[in-house]
Specification:
The protein has 109 residues and is mostly beta strands. Helices cover 0% and strands 43% of the residues. The chain has a six-stranded antiparallel sheet, with no helix packed on it. The two termini are 26 Å apart. It binds zinc ion. Zinc ion binds next to loops.
């Protein structure tokens, strides 16, 4: 399984590495392990045409986030203030946490 490669979790702060939003930072709204894509707040906005419905009587065009492949984003380290490589460390009590490869700071709380 390749899912282990994904170190990205919901609510992570990530930096976008490619595409039209390259360089931007956003918060992960959702992770789809099957498609290996992540949905990030206000990143990769696409216009969608909608039909009129109860919520939106006029229909028309709405902007919404589209998921991007997780290889195109990197998790930000709060201490380094930069996108970093992450490794998984097992604590003494057996709990697994993600840590910054650079400063060893825990990414998970
Ligand atoms: Zn760090």
């Amino acid at each position: 399984m390749q899912t282990d490669r994904c170190r990205i979790k919901k609510a992570d702060k990530v930096k976008i590495l490619s595409g039209k939003d390259s360089g931007k930072i956003g918060q992960v709204l959702n992770v789809n392990a099957k498609t290996q894509r992540v949905l990030i707040e206000n990143i990769n906005m696409v216009k969608r045409h909608t039909r009129p419905n109860a919520k939106n009587r006029q229909g028309g065009i709405v902007e919404t986030e589209a998921p991007i492949h997780w290889s195109n984003v990197m998790v930000m380290c709060n201490k380094c203030m930069t996108p970093v490589r992450i490794m998984v460390k097992t604590l003494e009590d057996g709990k697994k946490v993600r840590v910054c490869r650079k400063c060893n700071e825990q990414i998970d709380n």
